Amino acid sequence: MSREQIAREAIEHALKALRKRHLLEEGAHAPAYTALTKPILSQGSEWKEKADNLEVELHQCYKAQSRLSDQLVAEVAESRASKALLQEKEAIIADLQKELTQTRDEFSQLKMELDEKVKAVELLVSENKELRAQLEEMTIKAKNAEAENKMLVDRWMLQKMQDAERLNEANAIYEDMVDRLRASGLEKFARQQVDGVVRQSEDGAEFYVESTIPSTCKNKIIAHEGGCASILFEDNSSKLISGGQDRSIKLWDTNTGSLSRTLYGCLGSVLDLTITHDNSSVIAASSSNNLYVWDVNSGRVRHTLTGHMDKVCAVDVSKISSRHVVSAAYDRSIKVWDLQKGYCTSTIIFASNCNALCFSVDGQTICSGHVDGNLRLWDIQTGKLLSEVAAHSLAITSISLSRNGNVVLTSGRDNLHNLFDMRSLEVCGTLRASGNRVASNWSRSCLSPDDNYVASGSVDGSVYIWSVSKGDIVGSLKEHNAPVLCCSWSGLGKPLASSDKSGVVHTWT
Q1: Mean pLDDT across 217-243
Q2: Is the pTM of this model over 0.85?
Q3: Spatial separation of the C-alpha atoms in residues 485 and 292, rounded to whole Å
Q4: How far apart are CA 422 and CA 23, in angstroms?
């Protein structure tokens, strides 16, 4: 109940009590009043006057009594309201005392936990001191071990230097033997040249006829979606292999222009291709940072060569062994791979990214063309830089080695095609054309099998052909509707193939 309801009930109860008391008092005073009025009437007007006065005084007393009763009722109501307020305050005080007790209990519990935490911190401080002491001790041991390791490394480097000196001596002897063999081979080569046909009495019996200047488009092949950046012929064959941005490798019969087989499994765009000399394995360099090796007969992936940290843009296989492969990537490294084991055997690091590379004829040297325009030769055994020349003012896009290995063709973004003597790295020829503009950093030019001609594609969709001996353009092929990215000449002397950015391949005879 609210305070107002309690006050109202108290007032009503007091009024009832006062009325009851007033009635009782009137009943009690009635006989006296009657007795008084009789003598007054009999005694005359004097007494009547006194009686009237007394009656007036009595009425005044009643009025005073009524006022006092009202005051009493108000005080009683106020007293009850104060009592109710007091009870409410007492209840609040009880609740506060209860909360105070709970707070004291929580304080005691928190104090106990604080004491435990302080003890734990003291324990951790002591353990930290012990660990610092152990760390200082281990630091001293590590410094001692580092000093010993440095001494061992110095000894190891000294040993390696001695081994390198012995290896250099062996290489010098080997190079002398190779030069002698080359001299005898050139003499034999000259004796075997008859009617433009060259035969080599080695295992595999390579042969090729004199190359002809192509002038007619024999086949137009819609090879790949998104562009075809690399094509090459099988060794001593007219079968063509192409790789494109659609992540597929396709084998074509250039006699009919029909598709022979498609190799799947590459996870990125194909940027370069090579094939082993027995035509059994195709190797692709991919933008997925990997190289993929397919078995041509089964169409299955034999190896996925991982290790590069950026897109692989160039690959070549050794010309004396189908076992060793070399690759270059935009992680500024060249890696040598063993195809039988399927892993990298050595890595060469350099400052400028490599766009193109190839093996030398003897398989002991790597030729690499770089973004800085330099042509570099590397020893495959030691990984050392043998020689270097500024071949182009802009990036090198292509490297091709002549059949005998004495001349290397480089193409660059400066729209020049230079021929270098492999032995001295001196320029022995420069080919240019006013309309010939290289299309990309991986535009591939090529030498004809008899080393008499050079073919290169251009941004305007043309394929330009130069005579190496004359240094002049002897042909211009125009069928492409997109920039030409790659040219490849069959080892049989014909046909010539070219591919463009729209994925179209043309063969020329």
Answers
A1: 94
A2: no
A3: 21
A4: 147
